[in-house]
Amino acid sequence: MTSKGAYCLCIDNSEDLFVDVGALGRMEFPRGHYVYVGSALNGLDARIRRHLDTSKGSYSAIHWHVDYLLKERAVNIEAVYIKLTEERMECALAESVSEKGIPVPGFGCSDCRCVSHLFRVEGCDLARLELEERPLSDFFL
Q1: Strand (E) positions, 14-135?
Q2: Is 28 helix (H, G, I), strand (E, B) or coil?
Q3: How far apart, in whole angstroms, are the C-alpha atoms of residue 90 and residue 42?
Q4: pLDDT tens-digit map of 31-81
Q5: Which residues have a Cβ under 8 Å from the Cβ of 14 and sit 6 or more positions away?
Q6: Is 93 strand, coil or helix?
Q7: CB-CB contact of 129 with 97 (8 Å)
Q8: What is the pTM for the complete model shown?
Q9: Pairing state of beta strands 5-13 and 32-40?
Q10: String of b and e for 60-98 (b: at least 16 CB within 10 Å)?
């Protein structure tokens, strides 16, 4: 059975970066922690595994805004949180995360009306969102 749901990637950026992000153009990503909110209603584990592979440099195709950031050497996924659901809840989850962070305008939300799906945060404490933290090792075959 293919799992479906929403997810949050806790991302560490160890350097001040300027990254060309497709149609969004050149964007600044100050050193720090970020949370990216996504969804996969057809293959959640495969989507997260692909993000992890992009971050490690073993997958180079660009499909989403987050790929541009994850391919940077200074960027690392520290933790993954998921919510198994068949409902589209990515935007509601992004709104909840926005209460804790500073949005990166336009990032990851070209198909919705959200301000952003990437937020600069002080820390990645997502327990209040009732998400399940999954070990990164769960996503490797």
Answers
A1: 17-20, 26-29, 32-40, 75-84, 101-103, 118-121, 132-134
A2: strand
A3: 14
A4: 999 999 999 988 999 999 999 999 988 888 888 899 999 999 999 999 999
A5: 31, 74, 75, 76
A6: helix
A7: yes
A8: 0.94
A9: antiparallel
A10: eeeebbbbbbbbbeebebebbbbbeeeeeebbebbebbb
